[in-house]
Amino acid sequence: MAALRLVALDPDTDGGHCPAVIVDDATGDLLFQGPQVTSAEELAAVDGLSPIGPGEIVGRIPARMRDVLLKALTEEADADAGTQELR
User: Fold this and answer.
1) Bridge partners (DSSP) listed for residue 24
2) What sections of the chain are H helices per DSSP?
């Protein structure tokens, strides 16, 4: 079973179905929970910037999460300092 940990939660959440960012402690990978982008126009625009591969989705994290996400990721990076080579 994956060792998952919540690192950022929508600050305006009502407690249900809320956008979130989760880290997999075993790999350091980030998981994003949020509304899936389904608009053909938006998907085409994203695909024009970075091709959407088979099995990939585009998700949306609300702008109101910027501060909490930046804080959470900065804390994660500080905790990992010296354990991973920067690229």
Assistant:
1) 4
2) 40-49, 66-80
